[in-house]
Amino acid sequence: MNISFYGPHTQLNLWEAAFLKHCPQAFFKAWESGDAPADYAIVWRPSMQFFTEQTQLKAVFNLGAGVDAVIKHTNLPATLPIVKLEDAGMAQQMFEYVLYAVLHYFRNMDAYDFQQKNRLWSELPISKTAADFVVGVMGLGNIGQYVAQQLAAYGFTVQGWSRTEKALKGVRTHAGLPALGNFLEQLDAVVLLLPHTPETKHILNQERLAQLKAGAALINVGRGDLLCVPALLEALDANHLRGAFLDVFEVEPLPATSPLWTHPKVRLTPHISASTLIEPSMAQIAQKILRLEAGKPISGIVNPNLGY
Ligand code: GLV
Asked: From ligand 1's centre to the CA of 65, what distance in Å?
């Protein structure tokens, strides 16, 4: 069986070896224009040309949890299964990143950064315990559920919001847009872990940011356009929001001209909150391909109409 790989070219030999370990009978090739038709594709942000040429695919495996960069190619055959990565080592990384960001605000590191820059030695009162600090997680897929439950296990009070009803042990959950305002107004920090879909674009617009409690912090690790950046900057400058910890942006790499780079209330990182790990992702994809070849069902097939 032929596998066409449209992924990172760095460490190509490691991606290949990790895949072939689980599926030694396959022929694995980094895609080049003019290649013979492949049976399966493993992709990250593939070009349209890739799909124009690769017309015999039985399934497309995305090298990430968010499939927006695949389903934006609207002329893909409706019958072509698109499969997302399910956790594969990303949930734990995401929890670590989000915990760091939540602690940044909970332990007043934003205020101490400011104090250090101004040579101020001043002990701030700790007014809350972790249980008094309410963290809201928007998006309760594989990764969001894990992050929410780990934050709760750590000791924070955690609430979750998702498009459809989800029951999570230890986490109070809310569902649907009508419930969003009530969810937002209770939070000390909101964590965005939603996928990019037509419904989630700018879900945190000016009106919704205003619904957050005064002094709340925002952490975006989902997709850049969940958030309306001019409205965020306004909310930060008006001191309605305390700060923003951002890992994803509408345009990546973030243009050098973006005011986010230098905003004193913004911490940012270059889309590294949860990276795709070679071994677990290749193991998961190879095992799913073997199941498909054996006529067995697999999990993780996305609904292109929903966008995840
Ligand atoms: C990363 O952005 C992913 O979708 O996994």
From this structure: 5
Look up the CATH number of domain 2-88+276-293: 3.40.50.720
State yes or no: is 223 an active-site residue.
yes
Is residue 271 annotated as a catalytic residue, yes or no?
yes
Is 66's C-beta closer than 6 angstroms to any atom of ligand 1? yes
Residue recorded with tokens 């934003």: 110
| Predicted model pTM | 0.96
Of 166, 128, 135, 167, the closest CA to residue 150 belongs to: 135
pLDDT digits (tens, 9 = 90+) for 51-80: 999 999 999 999 999 999 999 998 899 999
Burial class (CB in 10 A: 0-12, 13-18, 19+), 41: buried
Mutate to test the pocket of ligand 1, among 43, 45, 61, 90 (most ligand atoms within 8 A of CB): 90
pLDDT band (50, 70, 90) for residue 237: very high
**pLDDT (tens digit per residue) in 269-290:** 999 999 999 999 999 999 999 9
Query: 90-268: what CATH class?
Result: alpha beta
Q: Is there an atom of ligand 1 within 6 Å of 64 CB?
A: yes
Per domain, the residue ranges of the chain are: 2-88+276-293, 90-268
